[in-house]
Specification:
Layout (H helix, E strand, L loop, with lengths): L1 H18 L32 E5 L9 H13 L4 E7 H4 L9 H16 L3 E7 L18 H14 L6 E4 L13 H18 L4 E3 L3 E2 L3 H11 L2 H5 L3 E4 L22 H11 L6 E6 L19 H18 L3 E7 L9 H4 L22
Parallel strand pairs: 1-2, 1-9, 2-3, 3-4, 4-5, 6-7, 7-8, 8-9
Helix pairs in contact: 1-10, 5-6, 6-7, 7-9
């Protein structure tokens, strides 16, 4: 009975979401008019592929025990996850200087990459955070002074993991000061140097722009303007984090003015086409946090129940697969709940803090 009710709930969500949608601004047929992509790391739904489903997994965090990493990888692979997005800290890899590499951190990254691949999952690595020696004051979000430094780090990692990491994403949510304390031009300079380094070290690997916090077509347009002709040779895929607004809302195609909800994907795609870029888009982060709300909980921090998390995620995956043919993958946020004081940030997990599965884990294999 519960399964029947859950299925009916998902169907209802899809009907509501689609009823609010306008005609697609862009369909998948546009891909046929552009240049052929590089090695087909992430084929789109328009090409006949299934939507790939991945998970954001914080498996390099220092408090995570090796046996727990193995349990998480087993749970994700068993649920049908095909991709793992892993955050890699440049400030951790080269904490002591440009010509150094922290073996303890590389050991963790080796175990994560190899563990994912042994279980049939591909790896998407997101490289970010500026070490103190590479910046003039500031913190991890401060752009490096010399882009030869970040290029060297990208080359070091892309070479070490050639054939093992499929995509390198350069920075996270660089459209926000919370992750990147620089301008679109500063990011374009960082991306140009890093992407060229990845290309040289591992020509088969794809390079992604930083996933934007919500959809931010203005920021993306400015970055692509600064890249100019380099965009066509360096950008393989573009990432967006179209979280719902408010945070407890069901998946929808309506476009929030701030860039939330799935409608922002079309706006992102339009910018790419304006720049002559026929590359896939991925949903780099999307999720719902399971926690109760108070009367004064702000809309960006509102939680849902476990059953709602599962139903909303299932509806979102089906909606993306059916409505956005230029999207190649959805990466769910995130692998597990954590023990922090921020209830909203701590409870996006597909697994509990004790690594027990939530209901949402069971829906991941439905489309991917």
């Amino acid at each position: 009975m519960r399964r029947a009710v859950f299925a009916a709930f998902v169907v209802m969500l899809l009907a509501v979401a689609c009823s609010t949608a306008q005609a697609p601004a862009v369909d998948g047929t546009a891909d046929t008019t552009g240049p052929a992509p590089r090695p087909d790391v992430l084929p789109t739904v328009a090409s006949g592929a299934q939507l790939a489903v991945g998970v954001n997994a914080h498996l390099l965090w220092s408090e995570l025990r090796p046996r727990d990493r193995e349990r998480i990888l087993d749970a994700l692979a068993g649920a049908g996850v095909r991709w793992l997005r892993v955050d890699v800290g440049w400030a951790s890899v080269q904490e002591e200087g440009r010509d150094t590499a922290a073996q303890w951190y590389l050991d963790r990254l080796d175990a994560t990459v190899d563990g994912a691949r042994e279980r049939g999952m591909k790896v998407w690595a997101m490289l970010w955070s500026t070490p103190a020696w590479a910046r003039d004051g500031g913190d991890l979000t401060t752009p490096p002074e010399d882009h030869a430094d970040d290029a060297a780090a990208a080359a070091l990692l892309a070479s070490r993991y050639a054939g093992r990491v499929s995509v390198w994403e350069l920075w996270n949510e660089a459209n926000t000061q919370g992750f990147f304390a620089g301008s679109p031009a500063d990011y374009a300079a960082l991306f140009r140097a890093g992407a060229a380094a990845v290309r040289a070290a591992d020509p088969a690997a794809w390079v992604s722009t930083a996933g934007t916090s919500l959809a931010d077509p203005g920021w993306l347009d400015a970055v692509l303007d600064d890249l100019g002709g380099d965009a066509a040779r360096l950008v393989d895929v573009v990432s967006v984090h179209p979280y719902p607004v408010p945070a407890d809302a069901a998946p929808a195609i309506t476009t929030d003015p701030a860039g939330g909800n799935l409608g922002g994907l079309d706006r992102t795609r339009e910018v790419l086409l304006e720049h002559g870029l026929y590359v896939p888009v991925v949903v780099g982060e999307l999720g719902w946090s399971t926690h109760p709300n108070a009367a004064d909980t702000p809309q960006e921090s509102r939680g849902v129940t476990g059953d709602e998390q599962a139903a909303y995620l299932a509806a979102a995956l089906q909606l993306v697969a059916s409505r956005f043919p230029y999207v190649a993958a959805v990466f769910v946020y995130d692998d597990r709940d954590t023990d922090t004081d921020d209830a909203h940030q701590a409870n996006f997990g597909l697994l509990t803090r004790d690594l027990e599965p939530k209901a949402a884990l069971s829906v991941l294999g439905a489309t991917g």
